[in-house]
Each structure stands twice: as C-alpha cells, then as structure tokens.
Amino acid sequence: MKYNIFSLIIIVLFFTNCYDDKGNYSYHDINTIEIGKFTGSTSLAVGDTIDIKPELTFSRGVETEGLKYTWEWCGKTRPGWNKKDFYWITDTLSSGYLVLRITDPNTGVTYIQSQSYTISSEFNVDGWIVLGDKDQKSYLTFVKEHTKENEKGEDVWANIVYEDVYKLKSHSELGTLPVKLHEHFCNTRNNHDLAANIMVVQQGGQGMVDLDGLTFQKVITIDEAFANHTLPVDFKPVNTMSMKRVDLIENYDGKIFSRVKVSDDLYHSSSYLQTPVTLDGEELHAHIYLSTFKENGFATLHDFENNRLVVILDQTDIYSSTNLSKPQVMPGKPSEDIPTGWVPLDNLGDNELIHLGYYNPSLGVSQPVGFFMILKDKDGKYWTQDFIVNRDWASSNLYLSDCRRNEIDLAPYINSNSVIYTLPFEDASDYVLISKDKELYLYCRQSPKDGIKLFYTCTGNVTAINAEVWYHRRAGIGLDNGQFVILNMRDGKNLQTDEEKLIWQTPENAMNLGKIVDVRFKVGSGDNWGWN
After folding, report:
1. Model pLDDT, residue 5
2. pTM confidence score
3. 98 vs 40: CA distance, rounded Å
C-alpha cells in the first residue's frame, strides 16, 4: 500500500512538471502570429509588380524580434526576397503559389501564408499596337495600358511602351513599306488561353506577316498562306479581313483574294487562292471596310467599279455555313420608312463614298451591325446615311432597318489627308472623329444639328485613329511626327478641357514611333470579336 501511494506521488509530480514546462514555454510565452491574406490582382503579366507588405497580428500585441522571413515563388526563392516586405517585378511566365514563411527563432514555430498567381505574357494585356514607318522600315510598338498610384493615392496612367517590339523579340527586322494592322481570331473553345494573332500588312521585306499575339513573333508569312506557297502576280496587299471561316486580302488594284478555312479552331487551316473573287461572273474590284462579323456573318466592301456596297458571307454561327464565301450586293434600301433622298446602297450613282464605318447599335448577343456613311453628291454637298444591316440566320438574305439621312457641312473640316473614324461601341458609338491636319473634330450622329465641333489639337498631323475598346471609351490617335495619343471619348461632346480629354500620350520629342500608319487596340479575345 505504501508502495502504491509512493508510486502515485511520483506520477503526479512527473505530469505536473511536464505541464509546467509546456505551459511556461508554449501556452503563456509564445507570441503567435496571424498573417493577413495577400491583396491585389492575382492575374498578372510579365513586367507587372507584386508588392506585398504583409499584415501581421501578434497575440501579445508586440512584434517578436529576430523573425526569419522566407518568400518562395513556385518553391524557389531569390536573393533579396527574404525580408518582411516583398517586391518583385515579374519576369517569368508561370502559374503557382507565392508563399511567405515566418519563423520565430525562440520557438522554432513557422507561420505560413500563401496566394496563387498566374503570370502571363507581357503582351496578354490591354494595350495598343502601333505600326509606324521609321527610317524606311516597318516599326511595330506595343503600348501596354498600366496605372500606378500617385502621391495623393490616386490611380494615374503610366503606360509601358515596348518600342520596335518585333525586333526586340525576334532579333530581326519586320520589313518595309508598312500599310495596315489587322487583329484576327479563332475559336477558343478548346484553348481559352489563345490570344488573337496580329496580321501586319506591308509590301517590302518579308512581306505581309502574321504575328503571335502573345509573343509578337512570326507565325507565317503571306506566301506560305497561299496555295503552293505562290503569291498572285503583281501582289501588293493594302488591307485584310479575317472572319470565322472566310479570310480576305485586298490588293492595291482592288482585287480580292480569299480562302475558306476548314476549321475555325485554327488561324491558318487552308490556303488562299491565287484567283480573285468574282461577282456575277465579273472580277470584283473593291475596298474592304472593317466591321464585326461574329453575329452577322459578313464582310462589307465597296465595289468601286460599280459604285455599290457588296458583302462576302461568312459563317453566322458554329452550326451554319449557308452560302459560305458567297459575294452578293447589299440591299439598296429598307422595305419601309425610306428617308427622303435616300441613295440606294446597291447603286450609289454619281455620289462619291467618302467614309464608311461600323458601330454596334446595342450591346449583347445576336445583335445586328450598324453603318455610318458619308457621301458627296454631284453638287459637292455632303450627306450622311445611317443604316443597320440584319441577316436571316438561316439564309443569305440581308435587310436594312433604322435608316436615316442628313446633310452635313463637312467641306471646311477635311482635306485630302483627312482620317474619318466612326467609334464603334455603345455610348461612344454616337461619335465620329474627323481630322484635318493637326485638328480633330467631333460629330455626333444622334444630334446632327449640332454640327462639327473642334475636339482636340494634336502636336502633329493625324494619320490613324482606332477605338476598338469595348467598355472603356478611349480612342488611340497616331500622328505623323511619331507621337501616339489616347483620348477620352466617354460623353465626348460634353468634355470641355484638354485635361478632361487627354488620357495619356508618348513623351513629345523624347520618343518617336515613326510616321504612324495604323493603330489598333489589342482586343486579344472576346469584346465582340472572339468566339467559342
């Protein structure tokens, strides 16, 4: 009995000592750390910054001295990372976890916080492609849209410019005699990471070339895209239009070369024919005009020999290929509510086509496409014609609606070098920009009686305008002095000061992108162009 009591006392003392040791060391003295979640965007592009100042909460209210900080990206660390705050200008295409480990040297306990990130190409972001002619060479620039916080805590534009981006990535010259840019798309249902390719239309060097939209490196030259890798005789491309299944190239003499792709899953699933497109047995000579095709399934052209609008049909949806690649004349007029003096689109007669631009009448799927046209009549007067083109999805039948016609006092505001551009999207689609040398004028389609008003004065002559920006209402302006300007077009007619209108521009006299010949907002995917 004495033995059992003695044993019991020994056991109690043993466990009491263990509890005291553990309590003194773990429960009462450990200054535990709670690491707050990392904030900020988790979808980044190479060149973006991850800047984290971790929020730490200590159970005892004061920070433990001598903490060891370890930062790892995809399981690896770098010199200079292992301190409390993390700052990294991303330089690696990768996806994974950024992990912070904080080790208390007094206890050996490690606390962990992590966040997954995806770092994609520096070009898989919102931005502008600018094509210039510099030192008699094609000069391609990418302007990455970027904001940063100023001293007041406000986000301000701080765009990043990648000059001569083709040479930067390919270590060779792009070419010469640049003419046009065209972004073209393919079906992304099997690969959602695809970004649209960039077709550079040029007549010298390696000729017209298609570039990968994520790397700006060459995919194919145009001779490889023709049957037997043979270009047509006297081939000098000036424009191009790629749709779901049908692709078109406009030659300098108006000949149109075409191909029908076997699949819309690939950019180049068939070859162009050397034989030009014909309409009613006659070779078609026409100019291509850009417009969206995803919902309506056609490209719009001006047959300048017969002075009429024509369309070349594309696939309307993934199931229908009715009359694929068929050229046909645009309907002349609506079936009802024909405006007084309406000039039929299938016969413009002695009227000169000055401008034809597209716009989206409203947002959403299965929407028709609207067009804004400027005509000059035989007496020298200028007229606008607005119309919406609808297509019967089950056939090749087109019909017009919502037609309007107005006189416009255009003569004082244009010359032979003027650029006229209809803004395509939502509220900004009310506006048309018209250049005359350095001056940019604004015309509102919805209030024609307001006339044409001076909008902005540039530092050089305007040579290119584009506003394929879906929700953001911005217009990119290219100048002959090598400067690129981005203007705010939201509620454009009510903007009063240049400060309200100017979003960003390349530094004057410090950066020369060559004489700019074309500008294109880089859609990448979606935005009424891509499909899946």
Report:
1. 46
2. 0.84
3. 13
